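User:
Care to share a sequence and structure tokens?

Assistant:
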Amino acid sequence: MNIIRIRSVATSFACSVLILAPLCRPAMAQSTLPPAVPDREAILAVVQAYFDTLAAKDVAGAQRLLITKATKDVAGEQRLLRPEATFHYVQKKDGQPVVEGFTRQWWLEAMPGRKQAWFERMWNPEVRIHGLIATVWAPYDFWKDGTFGHCGVDAFNLVKTDEGWKISSCVYSIDKECEASPLGPPKFKPAASPSESPLPR
């Protein structure tokens, strides 16, 4: 009699495991799911908006997208709480890597004086999110006055503030040859009067 009861309990336990196992699998796999869609869309919208300000020479718009410098007075001394957004780019010259960069402030001051028509786009972006930080890695191509300028990869770092996602830094490569964009030829009107620009793009 005891043997029958033991077998019955064991059988019931085994059946419970088999029934509940499929229900447990989604919970175990949650860590491998893609980032939340609203955050991902908001992050990509910030990067795209940055490209739009680039084309429009929209200084005010760019200011809203980039992290600004913040300081605090401590015992009569200004201490840096948060550095402003920075940009670095790397390219090969004479076979050697050359790294250069610029700050948010320099960028905003130089933007209005540019006379070239600029157009930049990205595709197949990879977005990684961890709480209040995120990265966007994407191939891009860049055009000046309707002519191909260069291509490469953009790598944006973003942080989430009380005002939403903002760009804290960016590093990008400058290449002359890349795989053709899956977006096809860009659709824009080239500028009528091309001119030189001091901006590093």
